[in-house]
Amino acid sequence: MGELFRSEEMTLAQLFLQSEAAYCCVSELGEIGMVQFRDLNPDVNVFQRKFVNEVRRCEEMDRKLRFVEKEIKKANIPIIDTGENPEVPFPRDMIDLEATFEKLENELKEINTNQEALKKNFLELTELKHILRRTQQFFDEMEDPSLLEESSILLEPNDPHRAPLRLGFVAGVIGRERIPTFERMLWRVCRGNVFLRQADIEDSLEDPTTGDQVHKSVFIIFFQGDQLKNRVKKICEGFRATLYPCPETPQERKEMLAGVNARIDDLQMVLNQTEDHRQRVLQAAAKTVRVWFIKVRKMKAIYHTLNLCNIDVTQKCLIAEVWCPVSDLDSIQFALRRGTEKSGSTVPSILNRMQTKQTPPTYNKTNKFTSGFQNIVDAYGIGSYREINPAPYTIITFPFLFAVMFGDLGHGTLMTCAALYLVLRESRLMAQKNDNEMFSMVFAGRYIILLMGIFSMYTGIIYNDCFSKSLNVFGSGWSVKPMFMRQRGGNWTFDTLEGNAVLQLDPVIDGVFNGPYPIGIDPIWSISTNKLTFLNSFKMKMSVILGVIHMTFGVTLSLFNHLYFKKPLNIYLGFIPEIVFMTSLFGYLVILIFYKWVSYDARISKDAPSLLIAFINMFLFNYDDPSNKPLYRGQMVLQSFLVVIALACVPCMLIVKTLILRRQYLWRKNLGTQNFGGIRVGNGPTEDEAEIIQHDQLSQHSEEEPERCLLSPAFKASEEEEFNFGDVAVHQAIHTIEYCLGCISNTASYLRLWALSLAHAQLSEVLWTMVMRIGLSSRGLGGFILLAIVFYFFAVLTVAILLIMEGLSAFLHALRLHWVEFQNKFYTGQGFKFLPFTFDSILDGRFED
Fold first, then answer.
1. pLDDT in tens, 296-353
2. Does residue 89 sit in helix, strand or coil?
3. What domains are there in the chain, each with its CATH number?
4. Better pLDDT: 703 or 351
5. What is the DSSP string of 776-836?
6. Which residues of 718-753 are buried (b: 16+ CB within 10 A; e: fewer)?
7. d(CA 690, CA 562)
8. What's the rounded Cα separation, in Å, for the pair 24 and 791?
9. What percent of the chain has pLDDT above 70?
């Protein structure tokens, strides 16, 4: 149970794996995911390691599988994912897998090459078919007598020797979008001495290279002479037009067209058979490609991990170093035995725990419920090894502080229903593997959203707020009847009620106030003119109370860190002055708030002094202010004593702690006869005592200079290291000033609970007033239709603004309160995360370096 509140105890272990069993042992360790391998060859190039060839072979197989996957997706064939998790294939099976993937890749490449060649031939025949048809239509049109008369313009009308000219022609196809530019270029280059006819091909044609559908046009160009012929061909070549041979006589064109059609029919049959064969190959591959991917990536991960190990001089044993939880050592031993048995080796693998001074990684066990809250903590910083884990406390405090800012019964219900949908259907949604990043983020925090919704419902009941409206369940605690029966100062009549829009209910008169509402805020406050004044005072004081309690709890948690790490100096000169400083000032303020609530009733509430003025006068030692009377007898003496006590805590943290650290260093260095800290030393400390003192001094020094030592295993305190009094004093001064000023600023920071709560309530009320009141103001059938339309807009705006935008704002503010105001009291967050070797993270795409 202790591991829930503190990270797992880790140990550095050494693995001795037999060469023939190493592969299977690492495979079993990857399945359980409980060890983090260390690189024992940091100076060896990645291309010079023992298993680099096996890694390359796995990468080559992975490349071939990606090619097959790409072809499957291109053919719009669904890849079947049965959720099967196959076992890692043995090394001897790699040859069979390579042969299978090689055969499949070559077959697909051959099919694609043949299919592309067939499609290219089919495209050429199809274009030739359209050219022959269109060319015949052009010549039939040219035989029209009217067209022949127009064509005679090419000859000189007064030439006595005129005779029909014999024109040459070329025919081809070109992209439809190039026709205008192509025609303009022909006219300019050939100086108008060519005649162009073109017609669009109605059906789109498939590009055999890209597979895209293209639109083309058939053209025929008439010219005279070889010079123009060469110019026309060069222009066609420049515009990527395809020229085809076209017979001059109609009979030859007709015979060629018949032959082309026959060849197209035969080619279409071959293409259909090729495509059917390709589909069968891809459908068969789609059934097993996911399993193949898993096998190959597992093999690659194993060989990559084996490259992190050392090989002994006999070449028969691999040596690995791993970080692992102490509680999982039995499971690791069992996995090693299972791997040894699977490999057929007779020599067992050895797991040997090692003693080290290096800082272990931080490992916090989580489940699907706690993982979201642990991610919130880890986003601030990975916890230092074995320090208090804030995640268990965040499970309650985070949604509660969110709900204080988001308190609304209606909005909380909507949020709870949305989260319940994600929770109840989590298995089906996880199986769908949605790649949307926003949905994945919301789905990962489904339990956080669920608790935020439930707590918002609770605070909505306390605020008596549901879509900006109060719920009158138990009736009101206020009554108007006693005002009619009042004997002093005149009585109320019905004319009084009708003639005044606002009336004041005096709680001093007996019977007007019948007692507090059973739960939450009395609904009569929703129609009162001083509603904001009352809620401002209530929520502001509530925010201060919650903030001081939250921060005090954070300071208290630091005590458990000091006790666990055996740092008595941090307790006496750290925790105690901090908690005294906090409670003497701000704890006292919370007590004053409760005291004022209890001591002043409606009859004497007008004479109640201001807590803000009293708190300011407490620091100024000003007790002669006639406008602010004392709350109780002896207030001056008690408050002066508390201020002096709080101020006395500052030099304890600032000066005394630094001097004692220096004294400890000098004592350890000189090994003199001292009587210090309750420990009597004769001629010097013993080895154990010296080690304890050195460890304590190192821990203290590392606390003040975490950037130098906490994350650096190379930093080691030694007897020769000089104690830099100036650096320690500066760091201690920064810590003291940050804490003392932080108590003030952090307390003020919790007022965001008050501000966002009022902002959310007012925004909800404005939305109801500006939208829903329009729909509720009409009657009849038209009013019903208008109400339906208005309610649609009201629902959309409620979800978009109040749930999503306001919810995100409250979430970020609650996150800030935990990171800055709460966790900095006890949580350093300067560790590094435990990253076990596990196949789950590799298959999910979270690859390790």
1. 999 999 999 999 999 877 778 899 999 999 999 999 999 999 999 998 888 888 999 9
2. coil
3. 1-47+307-363 (3.30.70.260), 371-477+515-533+751-825 (no CATH), 565-749 (no CATH)
4. 351
5. HT--HHHHHHHHHHHHHHHHHHIIIIIIIIHHHHHHHHHHHIIIIIIGGGT------B---
6. eeeeebeeeebbebbeebbeebbebbeebbebbebb
7. 20
8. 64
9. 88
